[in-house]
Amino acid sequence: MSDRLLTASAALAEALIEEMTRDERIFILGEDLTAHAGIFGQFKGIPEKFPGRILDTPISETCIAGCGVGAALTGMRPIVDFHFSDFVTCGMDELCNQAAKIRYMFGGQVKLPLVVWCPDGAGLRAAAQHSQSLEAWFVHTPGLKVVVPSEAADVKGLMKASIRDDNPVMFFQHKRLFRREGPVPDDPDFVIPLGKAAVKREGRDVSLFTYGSGYFLCQEAAAELAREGIEAEIVDLRTLKPLDFETVAASLRKTYRAVIVHEACLTGGFGAELAARIQAELFDFLDAPVLRVAAKDVPIPFSPPLEDFVLPRAADVVAAARSVCNR
Amino acid sequence: MSDRLLTASAALAEALIEEMTRDERIFILGEDLTAHAGIFGQFKGIPEKFPGRILDTPISETCIAGCGVGAALTGMRPIVDFHFSDFVTCGMDELCNQAAKIRYMFGGQVKLPLVVWCPDGAGLRAAAQHSQSLEAWFVHTPGLKVVVPSEAADVKGLMKASIRDDNPVMFFQHKRLFRREGPVPDDPDFVIPLGKAAVKREGRDVSLFTYGSGYFLCQEAAAELAREGIEAEIVDLRTLKPLDFETVAASLRKTYRAVIVHEACLTGGFGAELAARIQAELFDFLDAPVLRVAAKDVPIPFSPPLEDFVLPRAADVVAAARSVCNR
Amino acid sequence: MAKEKERKDDRPVETKTWRAMYRTMVKIRLFETLAGEYFAAGQIPGFIHLSIGQEGSSVGVCSCLRPDDYVATTHRGHGHMIAKGADVKRMAAELFGKATGYCRGKGGSMHIADFSIGILGANGVVAGGLPLIVGAGLSIKLRRTDQVAVVFFGDGAANRGPVHEAMNLASIWKLPVLFVIENNQYASTTPQSYSCAIGDLCQRAAAYNMPGYGVDGNDVLAVRETAARAVAEARAGQGPSLIENKTYRVRGHFEGDPQKYRDAAEVQRWQAENDPLRRFEDFLRRRGVLTAKKIRRIEEEVRAELDAAVAFAKESPFPRPEEALEDLFV
Amino acid sequence: MAKEKERKDDRPVETKTWRAMYRTMVKIRLFETLAGEYFAAGQIPGFIHLSIGQEGSSVGVCSCLRPDDYVATTHRGHGHMIAKGADVKRMAAELFGKATGYCRGKGGSMHIADFSIGILGANGVVAGGLPLIVGAGLSIKLRRTDQVAVVFFGDGAANRGPVHEAMNLASIWKLPVLFVIENNQYASTTPQSYSCAIGDLCQRAAAYNMPGYGVDGNDVLAVRETAARAVAEARAGQGPSLIENKTYRVRGHFEGDPQKYRDAAEVQRWQAENDPLRRFEDFLRRRGVLTAKKIRRIEEEVRAELDAAVAFAKESPFPRPEEALEDLFV
Ligand SMILES: Cc1ncc(C[n+]2csc(CCOP(=O)(O)OP(=O)(O)O)c2C)c(N)n1
Ligand SMILES: Cc1ncc(C[n+]2csc(CCOP(=O)(O)OP(=O)(O)O)c2C)c(N)n1
Ligand SMILES: [Mg+2]
Ligand SMILES: [Mg+2]
After folding, report:
1. Does some domain include residue A193?
2. pLDDT by residue (tens digit) across D197-212?
3. B14: domain CATH number?
4. Does B149 map to a domain?
5. I want to staple B166 with a disulfide (CB 3.0 to 4.6 A). Which of A19, A327, B111, C219 is the partner?
6. How many Å apart are CA B116 and CA B66, to the nearest integer?
7. Domain check: are B47 and B76 in the same one?
């Protein structure tokens, strides 16, 4: 079976169409889904193919999220579209106090197969309330799985796995990457299991641990570093919870140096958790401190020079990698 | 001026009474405040002393939080009581998309003097939805200050500073510590500036970095460690954002070893951020990995043996300290 | 008891159902009373909220439900659980924090559920059940069954935002949902008359184009009658209803509540004049459905069942500490 | 234009006010038109939501306000800003992302504010303004001034939970708040008739015990009349009101919206028959308040002002990148 070039958006739609065909219990719920196949066109083909299984809601994030939970508890497998990940704030109780805790606090009586799809990320000049990367909140919430794909194939494979998972999964997909193309296997059984990272570039000098949009910064940075004679290994984490620490550790044991890259703001971001674990569990393998490259600690500003300044750049990754290598 | 023994609850009330006397713009807003002076009796004396300045609301966390924001923007200095910190989920948009961002996204036009008082923490057999420690979410939200006092004096001094601050402050106070007594200075000008940690016990062998309820675990652990000949330094961080990294660094440069202790669950907790920074900025001073002692990564369960098992204990701190010292 | 007399006793006699309902009310009353006692004795950890005086609402509504119907309940949910048919042994064990409890000790009073009989859970978050029940209603609609989904919530809960979203959503989709407000006059320390801009919460139904019923919640048959109608409409695809059962919280908000917000006399008046259990008992005696002797027998049987439940709870082991790490993910 | 004729022209002539209102409507219309053009030309980053066709609502309401009254607006907020008296130069500069903008380039179209004239901000979160405005209302009450606080929100926003909490809270405390729904028939792609269980959103006022007014939002004087009454009541301490201005969103939800959810004919019909600006213009001419010549002069003056604003915006520098680190904390 061969690979085709698909956009991340098409990869998402394909995953959904395949899974919805396979399992009648799957449906999609959210605002403004049918008229334009999602506000980013991300559900192309679905409204026609599955009438009645992609449902427009009023603007009611709290209830939409809770609705997903209630439907998941009663035999369905809902996918909730959160419109913009920034509005998870409006469903935070349903996600963190209900979805995350229900199975546990009721002693494992029930399963909760829910996918919460959150388009996130900055770079579209959409300013403070439409540009956030909030995955770290959910990593700190026991009971949720957290998935952040980068390339189109990851989107497809991880979405299929998320849908098949019997637990609530927060699925973050970067808005600016929807149109980005990548090869996607032409195999309906192509699924990427949750909790498996991918070494996407091998290198012996430094490990770049990343996910989501950070992956593309690392790609760019690795090319630049290679020109300087530094061979970076890129580990795309793909799932933040559960985390594939084995792959992280294997890479680190080879390179002795690590840089973590993500678009969420630095302080308290996922990079903190990963750096904390690496230094704790692999202390003797570290030849340099674990560095983090992330957005600066401010809300995302509107004006292009400001937004560009706040977001991490490939050059920042290069500089960090260089600095740990030249130590 | 001498110190008196006050409970943490009385220290809170004293801070509020002093500040409300000083500044007419301060008022308190929340559910069930007047009948019993707050559901934990934490506002003792205030309903009588300041009628009309402590207001009962319906159960409407979203609007209460937003109400605090709106009042702060229009000349008042509100204190919002969040009843249980677990319900910040119901005001998350108002806290993180409004309060945190308003000053910034409007280009500094306005100030937002708001204190959000959140009783948090476990140990009361209150189970998954009434026991959380959620400070890390807010540390990862640029635009909010985050304060977590431990002893009664800290409660008083930090609450006064929080009220006087012109920015939104999340103030977490542990429910199980309300009745715990501690010496509190008898000085109406006693204020602990935000962003200043306190070295509460000096020691040369290992630094215990902690805050909130973790402080008392460290105290207990330090006593035990001393019996074994290990002298632990206890740094009570008090404010997580802004963080007093200088005090952290000074301690670490002395001890070369660090253990971070908090009650929030491990993964993605504040300990991750601190560990990541310590290893990045003080790499060459570390003789051992920075270890974290925290709650296990599950919701807080109800039954006593389960809850006790999930929460961090002084023995865990002792073990972690021992392990970094014996490396 | 005055109110009962005004009511014409022209209902068809449903002897068996009424007896069962009465027995359930007795069971709830006794369960709650015992829970209060064991809590006071320090044997139940955490905090508990009792529904004494509100049995008319739970039993009236649940008497119209099938085992496969869904119920989402609240922090004050023991009565709903029992009325829906939960096992008091496993409930008691859960309250005591034991491994044999419904949630293996992880939930406690505020987080009990029995998914095998459609109870989607108590909820520690006020109004937390409403979005979930809309999801259950949607699930029913998508699966094309004739189940119904019922959510109980308080007068205090009624002022939370999710209520608005849930009622609107259930209405536009005509979901088979019953929104049941238990207006027991207080939300913790706060009187309903203070917290809500209108007197009758059921009037809010008009804002969502659904029927709204204000019911004497301490008249179990009145509740049953209204719920039966709403359930029938829901099953027939006619959409949701809002029922406001007006009742009274006889105990404190939680056990141990100092209750400075109300007079003891107020409580006594309700207990003396408007106890749903006594009212139903009187009615059943007047209608010849129960005799003093039969009542005594029912009480004895229920007492025996609950004594056994408490014994079971007491004798059961606590969970092993490490079990705390189980049940997070499938 | 039919509707205008039915209206009896018996209002006292308020020549000066009407002219000012007309001028403001022209200014909004032109500002929005230019914003659309510069956006299409790629000179305005991000995305923008225009209020063309809704000038009757913004100007009608704001014509009743004082500079010290508060307004919380929405993602579609340019009109409210201008109606409240904002400086179009600094608005334009903000849309262009310039350092001279209201927010020094940090906010953009969706996050403009001018606290000096009581505008508490646009909001990227739908219904985000409601809790804030209740806080402003409470602040007014605590400070004992006679200000009022107005929040604009859409028909889509009306279904969010915070609306419920805000209206209840404002009502029980009798806060000086106007809740103004701009029902422009759509929330993004979703028709109002689909998203809401009842036809007239203003009916929901009854659920909160406050007056609810349904107004022809494209009749600026009808809006003004209703708003004036609600404002007067609010200033007099009589509490909040809900006003539903029925209007129409002539442009796409955002500029660039493919608008598959409606017919072009529907849009044209509204534009042709029910343009608030044309309706007001006709009225003013009939009443002899404005002549064709005067209208032309107003248009020219406004055009000149806006050309200057655009020039200012274009010529202004972008902020320096490092300014991104400023303005977070006091
Ligand atoms: C969202 C939320 N806010 C506050 C609380 C604290 N709380 C628990 S029960 C309660 C009162 C609830 O009143 P009501 O809804 O009338 O139910 P009742 O207790 O009377 O049965 C409050 C405020 C909570 N659990 N959840
Ligand atoms: C909480 C939230 N949900 C969704 C969105 C995305 N969104 C922006 S505007 C809009 C439609 C708003 O409709 P309405 O309230 O009628 O206002 P209008 O755009 O018609 O002026 C939506 C869904 C948002 N910004 N905030
Ligand atoms: Mg109540
Ligand atoms: Mg609209």
Report:
1. no
2. 898 999 999 999 999 9
3. 3.40.50.970
4. yes
5. B111
6. 11
7. yes
Residues D276 and D1: beta-carbon distance below 8 Å:
no
| Residue ranges with strand state E in A154-310 | 169-174, 181-185, 198-201, 206-210, 232-236, 239-241, 258-265, 291-295
Are the Cβ atoms of D172 and C197 closer than 8 angstroms? yes
pLDDT of residue C5: 47
Inter-chain CB proximity C197 and D165 less than 8 Å: no
Q: What's the domain count of chain B?
A: 2
- Residue B305 sits in a domain whose CATH number is 3.40.50.920
CB pairs under 8 A between A and D: 129
B130 noted as active-site residue: yes
A273-302 core/surface letters (b: 16 or more CB in 10 A; e: else): bbbbbbbbebbebbebbbbbbbbbbbbbbb
Task: Locate the chain B residue with the closest alpha carbon to A267.
Answer: B140
Query: In terms of domains, do B127 and B217 share one?
Result: no
Q: Which of D225, D220, D223 is nearest to D244 (CA)?
A: D223
* Per annotation, catalytic residue among A14, A19, A61, A94: A61
pLDDT tens across B175-231, in order? 999 999 999 999 989 999 999 999 999 999 999 999 999 999 999 999 999 999 999
Q: Are A9 and A158 in a shared domain?
A: yes
Say yes or no: B133 and B35 in one domain.
yes
Domain boundary among A117, A150, A185: A185
Of B14, B18, B31, B61, catalytic: B61
Of the residues B130, B151, B185, the one at which a domain ends: B185
**Structural contact between residues C64 and C227, judged by C-beta atoms closer than 8 angstroms:** yes
Q: Which residues of chain A are within 8 Å of residue C143 when distances are taken between CB atoms?
A: 75-76
Per-residue pLDDT of chain B (327 residues; tens, 9 = 90+): 578 999 999 999 999 999 999 999 999 999 999 999 999 999 999 999 999 999 999 999 999 999 999 999 999 999 999 999 999 999 999 999 999 999 999 999 999 999 999 999 999 999 999 999 999 999 999 999 999 999 999 999 999 999 999 999 999 999 999 999 999 999 989 999 999 999 999 999 999 999 999 999 999 999 999 999 999 999 999 999 999 999 999 999 999 999 999 999 999 999 999 999 999 999 999 999 999 999 999 999 999 999 999 999 999 999 999 999 987
Q: What are phi and psi of B202, to 5 degrees?
A: -90, 145
Q: What is the pLDDT of residues D267-318, one digit of tens each?
A: 999 999 999 999 999 999 999 999 999 999 999 999 999 999 999 999 999 9
Q: Which uninterrupted H or E stretch holds B199?
A: strand B198-201
Residue A39, ligand 2, Cβ within 6 A: no
Residue D247 alpha carbon to ligand 4 centre in Å: 9
**pTM across the whole model:** 0.98
Task: Characterise B287 by phi-psi region: left (phi > 0), alpha (psi -120 to 50), beta (else).
Answer: alpha
> What is the pLDDT of chain B when averaged over all its residues?
97
pLDDT of residue C1: 40
Q: Are residues B135 and B103 both part of a single domain?
A: yes
Q: What is the pLDDT of residues D123-179, one digit of tens each?
A: 999 999 999 999 999 999 999 999 999 999 999 999 999 999 999 999 999 999 999
Task: Kindly list the domain boundaries of chain C, sorted by start residue.
Answer: 15-316
* Residues of chain B contacting A283 with CB distance shorter than 8 Å: 286, 288-289
Amino acid at A274: L
Interface touch D136/B58, C-beta < 8 Å: no
**Binary contact (A291, B280; C-beta < 8 A):** yes
In the Cβ-directed half-sphere of B218, how many Cα atoms lie within 13 Å? Answer: 33
Q: Is A165 in the same domain as A205?
A: no
- What's phi and psi for C115, nearest 5 deg? -65, -20
Residues of B numbered 80-109 whose beta carbons fall under 8 angstroms of chain C's beta carbons: which are they? 86-87, 89-90
B222 and B129 in a common domain:
no
CATH topology of domain C15-316: Rossmann fold (3.40.50)
Domain contains A192 = no
Choose one of D183, D188, D254 to mutate for the ligand 2 pocket test, by most ligand atoms within 8 angstroms of C-beta: D188
Asked, for residue A101, whether it belongs to a domain, the answer is: yes
CA of A211 to the centre of ligand 2 (A): 30
Structural domain containing residue B147: 3-185
Chain centroid, CA D68 distance in Å: 17
